[in-house]
Specification:
alpha+beta
Length: about 90
């Protein structure tokens, strides 16, 4: 699975979510691509205005999107397929 993370250096919610992602990185198998909302060309992802944005891809298809702060369990549910597998398979 691939996760695109769009965040900003001065964003408090982004810092919190970075800590959450770092806690689960070693347990779950996913690749993460970081983009800076202020400097990178992120319009292709249609990020909106609420940061951070986490976009989850399975085999090149977007399967979930989280905007703002979320609990670790919500991310784990997506990584484990609890949210999307009934629609994707």
């Amino acid at each position: 699975m691939k996760v695109v993370k769009i965040s900003s250096l001065g964003c408090p919610s982004c810092i919190i979510m970075n800590n959450v992602i770092n806690k689960i990185k070693n347990t779950y198998d996913f690749d993460i691509e970081d983009f800076d909302y202020d400097f990178d060309d992120v319009e292709i992802f249609n990020p909106g205005k609420i940061l951070p944005v986490l976009i989850f891809y399975k085999d090149g298809t977007e399967i979930a999107r989280l905007c703002g702060e979320h609990k670790k369990e919500e991310i784990i549910n997506i990584l484990e397929g609890e949210v999307w597998k009934k629609y994707y398979t």
